[in-house]
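User: Hi! I'm working on a homework problem where we have to compare a predicted structure to a textbook description. Could you give me the structure for the chain below?
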Amino acid sequence: MFHLSSYFSVEYMLVLLPLSVGLYLILPQKLRRLSLLLCSWVFFWAVSGRLIVYLLLSILLVYLFGLWLGKVQEEQEAALAVCQKQEKKTVRGRYRARLRNVCILGVVLHIGILLAVKYTPFISDNLNVLLRVLHLPVKLTRPVFAAPVGISFYTMQAASYLLDVHRGKIRADRNLLRIALYMSFFPQIMEGPICRYEDTAMRLWEAPRIRYDALTQGTQRILWGQMKKTVVADRLNLLIENVFSGYEAYDGCVIALAVVCYTVQLYMDFSGTMDVVIGTGQIFGIEMPENFRRPFFSRTISEFWARWHITLGTWFRDYLFYPLSVSKPLKKLTSRARKRFGNHYGPLFAGGVALACVWLCNGLWHGAGWHYIVFGLYHFALILTGSLLAPPAARIAEKLHIQRDHIPYRILQTVRTFLLVCVGELIFRALSLRQAAGMLKKICMQFTLDTFRDGSLFAMGMDRQDYIIVLVALGIVFAAGFVQERGLQIRKHLAGRNLGVRLAAGYALILFIVIFGAYGQGYLPVNPIYAGF
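Assistant: Happy to help. Predicted structure tokens:
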């Protein structure tokens, strides 16, 4: 069986992607869209095997529930066209309830499949603990299901489609193949980004011709992602695995270093994958949403999450936070709180409830474990605290004549935000809350520099050369991010230079990957981290 483990595998880079591009180039438009769908299903089958049945079931459910919603909407329009003016409100209310029920059923079916596949062992384990605490002589079985790669991502896309049809934002699509291509497009099926129907479905179905500039810029983006993944993320993996799997043997300084390295690894791994995904889409003329916008330049945790995994954040914002915020109970709470606590603190009561729900779901979305839940609630607490402290912090800065836009203060804020993010990633990466607490305790109570003095740092999976390569690569990524923060679009700027400069830049990047990539003897292939969520 043809097996494919990631977008960085030889099978993807040298077999599936070139073949899909070649097939796309030689086919007429009507067949190009079908070739994309075929390549997408081949990719998913190569990654998940027989578990492709989950994806096919999701496609069918999305299609049928979309048609059901569309039929109810058509019936509503017909009824409103013939009823009296005074009856319109009643008719709208009746059909609104039907639409809501159909949409809830469709979304619950998808979320239910996701919960059953990913969370049944976690739920049953915790129920068994509760039963033991209550001294009840019952023990639930612990069923374990095989989960297809990407189920969390395509479930979110399915739910967003049904919710948008229900809201009347888009019309139900009667073309099953177009729905299938929207749900299955192979560059984003494994790790996102989480696309919206209105943004990508029609463009995918148009199957535009491959343009030279899109081909070259898409290839550049793929190489950039390959560099971030293979040179940095994979090279850091040995150190991170050694420390997190046996942190008891290390002092607080080494643990802190491993936590920082994991934070860097996670970013370089996930953003590198997004570079490959978005670059692949660009080759086919599909503009996919950005999922990262230089998050480590953020000055606050709120800003960080506006720049990190953007499509997940906007999904929770549009389909969970906003609907909860405008619900009747929370609107009443906001109104009462505003009268008592003012226009800043009043809305935070209702907003805090909605925000807590978002971050609870965010944590659980990443995995079935209490450390994921605490990870989500940790960021909820930071964001809420930041909102609560914003007015007094502004007043203190004004009294002390602190210029909050000056570079030293901005650097201080950026460093503080990075350290807070690292604490969250420690909780996220740890195997349990007990391990996370133990590692934090060691960082605070047993922080020494002995490992740096005696040279044992270079015997934990990375030698001196590895650290130098990582620092050089990070310097390149930081420099690129810095100029992008200042408004320079590097690839467009490079496209305006002569052919010799463009070729030199491309070959330099390829050589850097070939010479310094972490592969071969001593390195195990590292699957993309977010593919497991």
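For your comparison, note the following. The chain is about 75% helix and 0% strand. The chain has a mean pLDDT of 91. Good luck with the assignment!
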